[in-house]
Design a protein that fits this description.
Bound molecules: flavin-adenine dinucleotide
Largest sheet: 7 strands, mixed
Strand content: 15-25%
CATH superfamily of the largest domain: FAD/NAD(P)-binding domain
Radius of gyration: 22 Å
């Protein structure tokens, strides 16, 4: 039997593509390697409690009435209603460059405009011109790499402000060192500063359950524990896939959401040239006893910080670069019900190679994970107040953990430095969606899956 539409990967791009297709034709099958869907945006259980892996905050918040906003377009394309999720907006977030400046921002763009006017008055005009440019700029036109940093320098005559604006956009969506592609910058600027951050009510599992229930109700199929080991092709056309178990599944059309190099490898093709390293991260989740940490900020949702003289976003020489990072306080979204649990999560840049070397000795690897959690706690405590006494549980995941659970090469959350923006891979019935198509984050990856189905699949069936 031949499946009309096969999708490799049950992450958010695969799920969104599958739902979009299933609205018109239920003959779609997702093959997911892991025993659980969600990919980078998933969850795990420890001590009978659920911990989220990917979600700090969803970008691209939009009010229901803003029908053209990416969030509302996405919901319409998937035939999902806002009522199926409760959206909670960030309270406010902050960019802190130690000893230099801080900038607060919220889902009201006026807040960051006022902050810049007050703290960087000499940059105010340039910032307004930048925003006007971004409103008229189409970031989806396919173009060669253009440096966002060089572009920003033309508008903003202060390196500190350039770095402060780039810091959150890079941490939430740059696959390359020290810079971003201008198109990617424009997408992320809109996603984070112009639109803003929110999260769904409940947990990531609840969010994924809504998507999966909806997909199944439309008639779509999912197989978990189904790792694709080979993509079968003849004469520029895909015939199907072979699973790690040896089973062959034939298809008319294939969408891969697992990454460009990972897909080329399944095709038996050489990797793309890579002139910039993949970027890895470590993330530590600290679970806290709220009564023991009364001083944690209640008015900050995400804090992006840099403690060094110059901000660097690059693969570190050591296992972890603690000089910068992201702090997420997931309880600080407006309107969340009070919880007996509190968490604080940290993200820092990390070196896959260093962790791989450490993993040659399991004890050394685990000891380094412990040291990473301790060091991260100290760095965070200097910003949020000391929460050491309140920690009841913590877990650290490294680039190796991410690679192990999502098969993302080198655990690079944002994938290959080079993106295939049109998703075309040189076979007329194979397409790429997700991270390596250049749409990053939760909303980006979901829109990517939907757009590939709209452009390439719906007309065929
Ligand atoms: C720590 C962390 C924090 C994050 N924070 C945020 C945030 O705050 N906001 C935000 O918007 N985004 C965040 N993200 C990013 C976001 O989760 C991802 O951008 C998004 O989920 C990517 O979805 P995807 O479908 O493109 O890829 P993936 O999630 O990688 O999905 C690919 C799927 O393919 C499967 N797969 C791989 N190989 C095979 C194979 N051979 N056969 C079958 N299946 C296979 C994988 O198991 C995976 O499920 C974060 C990610 C992490 C890890």
């Amino acid at each position: 039997m031949k499946i009309p539409f096969l999708i490799i990967g049950g992450g958010l791009s695969g799920l969104a593509a599958a739902i979009r297709f299933a609205r018109f034709n239920p003959e779609v099958l997702i093959l997911e390697k892991h025993h659980r869907i969600g990919g980078l945006n998933s969850y795990f259980f420890r001590n009978n409690q659920l911990f989220e892996t990917g979600l700090h905050a969803i970008t691209n918040y939009a009010a229901a009435k803003d029908r053209r906003a990416p969030l509302n377009r996405l919901l319409r394309q998937l035939k999902l209603s806002r009522d199926q999720f409760q959206f909670h907006q960030q309270i406010q977030s902050e960019i802190i460059f130690k000893g230099c400046a801080s900038l607060s921002f919220s889902n009201d763009f006026a807040m960051i405009e006022e902050e810049i006017a007050r703290k960087f008055p000499h940059c105010q005009d340039g910032f307004h011109r930048l925003v006007a440019f971004l409103h008229s700029f189409d970031p989806f036109t396919i173009a060669p790499f253009r440096s966002a940093r060089q572009f920003l320098n033309r508008y903003i005559p202060d390196r500190l402000l350039v770095d402060m604006l780039l810091c959150p956009l890079m941490f939430y969506g740059s696959s390359i060192e020290e810079d971003m592609d201008l198109g990617q910058f424009a997408i992320m600027f809109r996603a984070i500063f112009l639109e803003g951050l929110f999260r769904p009510g409940g947990t990531v599992k609840d969010f994924l359950d809504v998507l999966l229930t909806h997909y199944r109700a439309l008639g779509g199929s999912l197989r978990t524990g189904a790792e694709v080991s080979t993509i079968l092709h003849t004469g520029g056309r895909i015939d199907g896939v072979v699973l790690a178990t040896g089973e062959t599944i034939l298809c008319d059309c294939l969408l891969s959401t697992i990454g460009i190099e990972e897909t080329l490898s399944l095709l038996g093709r050489p990797p793309l040239p890579q002139n910039s390293p993949r970027l890895g991260f470590v993330e530590t989740i600290f679970q806290l006893q709220p009564a023991l940490c009364p001083q944690l900020p209640e008015d900050r949702t995400i804090i992006f910080f840099n403690n060094s003289a110059t901000f660097h976003y690059k693969k570190p020489d050591t296992a972890v670069d603690f000089t910068s990072g992201v702090i997420c306080l997931p309880q600080n979204f407006a309107g969340l019900p009070p919880s007996t649990r509190q968490e604080i999560r940290s993200t820092h840049l990390a070196s896959y190679d260093a962790w791989k070397e450490l993993a040659r000795d399991r004890h050394e690897y685990l000891a380094e994970k412990g040291k990473t959690a301790d060091h991260s706690r100290e760095v965070l405590s200097a910003i949020t107040g000391d929460f050491s006494r309140a920690i009841v549980y913590h877990d650290t995941f490294t680039p190796l953990t991410i690679e192990r659970y999502t098969a993302k090469k080198e655990g690079a959350i944002y994938g290959h430095p080079q993106k295939i923006k049109d998703g075309v891979l040189g076979c007329d019935n194979l397409f790429l969606a997700g991270t390596d198509q250049g749409f990053l984050g939760i909303i980006g990856s979901m829109l990517s899956g939907v757009s590939m189905v709209n452009q390439h699949m719906l007309a065929r069936f």
